[in-house]
Amino acid sequence: MYPDADIPVVEVSISSRLGAAFNFQLGEVLAPLREEGVLMIGSGGISHNLREIFASPRDPSGVQKVEVFTEWVADKLISGDYQSVVEYESSAPHASYNHPTTEHFYPLMTVLGASGNAKAERLHHSVEYDLLAMDAYRFG
């Protein structure tokens, strides 16, 4: 994709304590870097509930909760409803089940803010161990 490895990369930490809106605003501050050719990559997980993976017994509805949540995220991203994604904790189905802690979802907030409302495209969808969704999106 970038065989010359000439894309600038800067690591930015999210704040799991300051909330989704803060991390989105952080991305908005970084948005002008896109015009300078800086590639923004957010790594996290569309769902991430390790507690449930190691639970015995597991919640029998867990697979469905992951599916419903990840499809909700996909629908909101692809339709451009980024505000709903930022407010996911109060509006997404099964939000707390999919993210009992926030640090794996907040990188998406920063990338959303940096996207400048660019159109989202789902590049990949898979689920590991029935509960860890590994979706990938491109904005732009």
In short:
The protein is mainly alpha-helical and 140 residues long. It has helices at 19-30, 50-53, 62-79, 82-86, 88-91, 95-98, 106-114; strands at 120-124, 127-128, 132-133, 136-139. The chain has one domain (19-139): LigB-like (Protocatechuate 4,5-dioxygenase, Chain B, 3-Layer(aba) Sandwich).
Q: How does this structure look, described?
A:
This protein has a single domain (19-139), classed as LigB-like (Protocatechuate 4,5-dioxygenase, Chain B), CATH 3.40.830. The chain is 40% helix and 9% strand. It is built from 7 helices and 4 strands. It has helices spanning 19-30, 50-53, 62-79, 82-86, 88-91, 95-98, 106-114, and strands at 120-124, 127-128, 132-133, 136-139. Strands 1-4 form a two-stranded antiparallel ribbon. The chain has a two-stranded antiparallel sheet with strand order 2-3. Helix 1 packs parallel to helix 7 (106-114). 31% of the residues are buried.
CATH level 3 topology = Protocatechuate 4,5-dioxygenase, Chain B
User: How many helical stretches?
Assistant: 7
Order of helices and strands: HHHHHHHEEEE
- What is the second-level CATH architecture? 3-Layer(aba) Sandwich
Total of domains: 1
List keywords for this structure.
single chain; 140 residues; mainly alpha; Protocatechuate 4,5-dioxygenase, Chain B; two-stranded antiparallel ribbon; 7 helices; 4 strands; 40% helix; 9% strand; globular
Sequence-ordered SSE layout with sheet pairings:
Layout: H1 19-30, H2 50-53, H3 62-79, H4 82-86, H5 88-91, H6 95-98, H7 106-114, E1 120-124, E2 127-128, E3 132-133, E4 136-139
Antiparallel strand pairs: 1-4, 2-3
